[in-house]
UniProtKB/TrEMBL annotation, chain B:
Catalyzes the reduction of sulfite to sulfide, a step in the biosynthesis of sulfur-containing amino acids and cofactors. This is assimilatory sulfite reductase (ferredoxin). Residues 606-668 form the Nitrite/Sulfite reductase ferredoxin-like domain. The keyword Magnesium does not apply. PROSITE patterns: NIR_SIR (PS00365). Its cofactor is [2Fe-2S] cluster; FAD; [4Fe-4S] cluster; siroheme. [4Fe-4S] cluster binds at residues 687, 693, 727, 731. Residues 458-507 form the BFD-like [2Fe-2S]-binding domain. It comes from Streptomyces nanshensis. Pathway: Nitrogen metabolism; nitrate reduction (assimilation). Residues 22-319 form the FAD/NAD(P)-binding domain. Residues 882-908 are annotated as: Disordered. Siroheme binds at residue 731. NCBIfam families: nitri_red_nirB, PRK14989.1.
Amino acid sequence: MTTATTRTTSTASTASTAGTASTAPSARAADDADHAHAAAAAPHPRVEVHDAQGWFALCGLDALTPGRGVAALLRDGTQAAVFLDRAGRPYVIGNRDPFTGACVLSRGLLGSAHGAPFVASPLLKQRFDLRTGSCLDEEGVCVPVFRSRIR
Amino acid sequence: MTPPAPIPTAPTAPTAPTAPTIVLAGHGMVGQRFLEALAARGVTAAARVVVLAEEPRPAYDRVRLTSYFSGTAPDELALCDEDFLSSHGITLHLGDPAAAVDRERRTVTSRSGRTVGYDALVLATGSYPFVPPVPGSDAEGCFVYRTVEDLLAIEEYAEERVRNAAGAGIVVGGGLLGLEAAGALRGLGLRTHIVESGDRLMALQVDAGGGAALRRTLEAMELEVHTGVAGEEIGTDEAGAVSAMTLSDGRRLPAGMVVFAAGVRPRDELARAAGLETGPRGGVTVDERCRTADPDVYAVGECAHAADGTVYGLVAPGYEMAEAAADAVAERLARYGAGVAAPSRPRMFTGADTSTKLKLLGVDVASFGDAHGTADGALDVVYADSRAGVYKKLVVSGDGTLLGGVLVGDAASYGTLRALTGSVPPVPPGTLVLPEGADGSRESSGGLGPAALPEDAVVCNCHHVEKGAVRAAVAEQGCTDVASVKKCTNAGTGCGSCVPVLKQLVEAELEAGGVAVDRGLCGCFAHTRAELYEIVRTLRLTSFSALLDSHGREEARGGEGCEVCKPAVASVIASLAPSIGAEDHVLDGEQAALQDTNDHFLANLQRNGSYSVVPRVPGGEITPQRLIVLGEVARDFGLYTKITGGQRIDMFGARVEQLPAIWTRLVEAGFESGHAYGKALRTVKSCVGSTWCRYGVQDSVRMAIGLELRYRGLRSPHKLKAGVSGCARECAEAMSKDFGVIATSSGWNLYVGGNGGATPRHADLLAQDLSDAELVRLTDRFLMFYIRTADRLERTSAWLERTEGGLDHVRDVVVHDSLGLCDELEALMAEHVAHYRDEWSAALEDPEKLARFVSFVNAPDVPDPTVRFTAERDQIKPDLTLLSGPDLPVRTAEDAHGTAGLEGATAR
């Protein structure tokens, strides 16, 4: 299940995660560092995902727009779609749309139905539950789900 | 009843038919209905059908004749197309009416001398206009009001001879036809008099009170009404043209033209000459199967003196007669063994309901049942509001049975009341005439919903559909909306006046069946798109989440919204952005999160995740230099190019991170976003027009460019396409567009609601002969009214069909400003035009927006390895093998592992 952790200002954990993830987005890391430096107490949280090798930082939280997604590369070379909902919770699922084979789920629109957050594929509009990866419009179809958190 | 004689092949028929021949004399509305009824019974397949018609054009909708003056082209009134005739093997001779009948030899001879033998002859010759014997009534400038040709002549004379001389027009006759004619003259810009010899207007339909209400309303429109007087003499000038009319009270009305619309008389001369019996006031006498005294001759419509002793001048009874006659003819053929099935329950015509509901000069007038209270002991219940021009009277019997009524100025309850006629309404009659809300209820018809109607109440008079049939269509045949009920039962497909009641019935039935009628936009909003538009506009809401949390369904508040409402609300906010103070770029602030992927990347997503790019080419006009730029950009980025149907160039295969670089080049060369990705104006297609074309009458390219630049970037419920043709040859296919413009010798005709694609629809003429400024003004209003009231993803064609009142209503609103909205609509469009900015150049200047155009948030320089291309016909195409492989193994968070190592995906 997806874990939504509360934001933390611990720069130590971010640094250690970034270290694990070898060359995590350097440009953005530098931006964030500058920003943190300029406003000493300001947090610069990151979105982390849990893959086979453990937690790893994908991007700064400020790279995400609530209600939208971005594509990200995982360490094994597969693609993930990273979303942020209105409440600030992150979700990470596979980016590949199983109906068309195209890696586009990150470009779909976020929604919620009966409390369940979902993304609608931008190609043929099938919806996938962001917590379980299962398709809401066709039984038996699902996409990978990754644990994620904000640190 | 005399058994019908078998039909032998007429031995004397000069054309020597092998199949039986049916001759129809007259091709008006009833004649056409008769042909359709024959076709429906398979008669046309078994018999030869020959039609002799007087008018130069096939049957048209005479009831809507006057709509010609509000912009309906004569061709749009047509009821019969070439396909119908040819597919049923019907021969139609236009301009060649039947002139003589030889009943002995069973032949008809036409005016041109054509002789046709018949086995059955059907007279549908209609009526001729009655011209009172006023001296001078044959002078130049005197007209009748019956045919399209009459209207064309009236229009030409009024425009060339009367209007310029600031002359007036006189209509003789204050009945239905007279008021239509008066509306026409007024519309042609003439000061108009109505001269009616009776004591009130529309004496046949309304009583004294109704007539008075009507008169006040018409006088407020500056029509001059003279009742209780007749025309005494028509004066002429030296050239013999009309100059005035003297009335029976001695007054003299100066006028340049006179239109006689004082009723009609049946055209029965053919029957008289053939020795057939006619009624005391004319009309060929027929029995309930519409047979004359000669069993081989039938008569239907206005030329018939029906079995109940009435000569009907309305189309609905004519249609019923046509059906009865078709049954009778089919039965004869069946007996003759012509391969036609005999109707199981042949229809009889024994009389008809003459209920009518009309809109005359914008005033609703309706009468139904025993409108004049002629029954013994009939009592009146009257509501009158002289100031508002409303008059309603119900006629009830002593026991409370509703017998009939008259409605003037407000006929909203007509459908319900007509259907209740003959029963005791479940509420006191007084409640039924009070205006809405007068008794504190918000229900129409004084609290009476359709539930109050008895099962056998006739809801649709034109097609005689009872309430029970409508309910059955919903309950048993699975219809879930008005459109499907119309298709299933035919109800509402005639004059359309019953559609509001039909809608209520369908909704009530659905609700009763446990089907919640939810007109909400989606699971998040119970409001329609049009309602959300009003909420956003009036509350000046600029944020989706604010709208969702304040106006969403209870369970959806605080949620995310969904893929349906987010783009729809984004579109509404974008349409209104300048006037509600919203950020004006679709990627600004929260709006960015609402856009479909196409709007989000300002490009069109294709099947492999790549995008296509379409720069605007206004009107399809492009310089060689710009054409070269497009070629160079496509070449340099390796894009596939194709010419679109909207006269521009689509470049495919761009990866998301290439879009800014591509557009930098395009913007440098002066290109702008073509909005091919948006629910917005796409293109205004044009032909070369009068500049180059030897047929062109106006500069269509200039107009197309002007319109495209005016409406570019306008967000709407669905995409908008337009076209401008430089002449009536219509090379730009403007009639298949949401709005189309066709040049005329004196200006532009504006057509709306056209569509191509899977459900083609020819656009309807909204207004004609417009100047440049008038065209733009009406288009502004039309588009803004559409944007304001349409549903999500509802093209103008579907919107026009769905809108209550259809084209007439839209014309009332945007041309005649019946809702007083036009100033506001124009102001909204002016704001749009003033605030337009190219979305791509604005995006290129904003680093925050550009930051989104990356392949991967954590590897912006790594192209998506699944977006690859192979070659075909010297260009690229998506390499789908990369997409069609086995699905990635489904992983849960616990056992996440993957297929590693797609090329380019270096570890970060």
